[in-house]
Amino acid sequence: MKIKMALAKGRVAEKALETLTAMGYVFPDYSPKSRKLVFTDSTESLSFFLVKSPDVGTYVEKGAADIGIVGRDVLVEHPADVYELLNLDIGKCKMCVAGFPDTEIVYNKKITVGTKYPRIAKDYFNAVDQPADFITINGSVELAPILGLCDCIVDIVESGNTLKENGLVVLKEILPISSRLIVNRVSLKTKSAAIDPIIERFRSAGS
Ligand code: PRP
Fold it and tell me: Fewer beta carbons below 10 Å: N end or C end of the chain?
């Protein structure tokens, strides 16, 4: 039985593919430049496809994929009705409030926050009782405070290079992030003979 896996395009997929290769899976048709959408391993037991990160949970929840790998940031921002089975040791970063070093967040005075993660940002500023307006930005979020669109941003920080190269700093760490292995609720029961060994291999790859 072939198991279908949804991978979040970009850094998560790159790391997940390194792990799959280390586990012995070979995907003969895969190359980062390929325009093919679905890749099957040489034993035809596992196929993967690349989707935008918020879609991983959708594919897995609806059963179009049996398993998926996606960052915790995405699962918190776009909750899906799936089993979150493993915390993989890849894609580690932090969700942070960031801005200029001299950014003064004046409490009780409304600030404007730019982010790809409006839900996470709202939850955080609500929790600290800070009134804020939120502007959703889809990429290069660091640009927004530089151009005066917002006072600060909520975004993921991995190496910190993007902030540094743009004169910004972390003002507050909100949430540790790493990639998660998620599984469709029905597949876990009906395809357990095929899925369990894959989960086990991921578990041992991470330990
Ligand atoms: C992410 C994030 C930051 C950057 C942080 O963006 O939104 O911009 O990576 O990484 P760093 O701390 O290692 O510099 P991504 O590369 O996913 O692209 P995007 O800005 O187009 O969303």
Answer: C
What would the pLDDT profile of 41-62 be if each residue is shown by its tens digit?
999 999 999 999 999 999 999 9
Residue to mutate (ligand 1; options 141, 170, 174; most atoms within 8 A of CB): 141
Q: Is the pTM of this model over 0.85?
A: yes
Give me the helices (H) in the chain, please.
11-22, 53-62, 72-77, 118-127, 143-146, 161-165, 185-190, 192-206
Mutation test residue for ligand 1: of 116, 162, 163, 177, the one with most atoms within 8 Å of CB: 162
Token match 């049996």: residue?
A: 66
Q: How far is the CA of 162 from the centre of ligand 1 (A)?
A: 7
The domains found in the chain, sorted by start residue, are 3-91+178-206 (3.40.190.10), 93-175 (3.40.190.10)
Ligand 1 binding pocket, CB closer than 6 Å: 10, 139-142, 155-162
Mean pLDDT (the chain) is: 94
> What pLDDT, on a 0 to 100 scale, did the predictor assign at position 57?
98
- Strand pairing partners for 183? 67, 83
